[in-house]
Amino acid sequence: MNPLQPCMRLCCGLALIAAMGGAHAQPTSATLQLRTLAATCAACHGTDGRAVPDSGIVGLRGRDRNELAMRLLAFRDGTRPATVMHQIAKGYTPEQIDQLAAYFAGLPR
Predict the structure, then answer these.
(1) Which of 7, 19, 43, 59 lies at a CB distance of 3.0 to 4.6 Å from 51, suitable for a disulfide?
(2) Which CATH number fits the domain that encloses residue 79?
(3) Nearest-angstrom CA–CA distance, 59 and 61
(4) Is 11 inside any structural domain?
(5) Above 90 in pLDDT, residue 95?
(6) Rounded Cα distance, 54 and 33, in Å
(7) Is the pLDDT of residue 22 over 70?
(8) Residues ≥6 apart with Cβ < 8 Å to 76
(9) Is residue 89 part of a domain?
């Protein structure tokens, strides 16, 4: 037996699995756009809204959708005090705010 044959079989099998699964598991463009938008929050609020413990930063995952949307809107219109969020929120459309709130609310705490 060729010493590379097991490796070739493994690679072919993995390629076949990827090709079969890829057709069913491809995220949509809208999903990728939402994940990209949500990733902008990671620098302060942690990956997928998991804040670093004892950091003083609010975690976003699993929070109430309406609460998140209202906070973002309040930052955006300047009625909620902030250090940087009022500037960041100004860059979001109302639709993006709703999408972000739904995204983080839909993640388990």
Answers:
(1) 59
(2) 1.10.760.10
(3) 6
(4) no
(5) yes
(6) 30
(7) no
(8) 86, 89, 90, 92, 97
(9) yes
Instruction: Tokens for 49, please give them.
Output: 């809204």
Q: Model confidence at 14, in pLDDT bands (50, 70, 90)?
A: very low
- Tokens read off for 76: 């955006």
DSSP string, 8-41: HHHHHHHHHHHHHHHHHHPPPHHHHHHHHHHHTT
- pTM for this model (two decimals): 0.72
Give the number of other Cβ atoms within 10 Å of residue 37's Cβ. 14
pLDDT of amino acid 13: 47
pLDDT at 21: 53
- Angle, helix 29-39 to helix 94-105, in steps of 10 degrees: 90
| Token representation of residue 28 | 């949509």
Identify whether 91 is part of a domain.
yes
CB atoms within 10 A of CB 101: 22
| Residue 28: pLDDT over 60 | yes
Look-up of token digits 């929070």:
63
Direct distance between the N- and C-terminal alpha carbons of the chain, in angstroms, rounded to an integer: 52
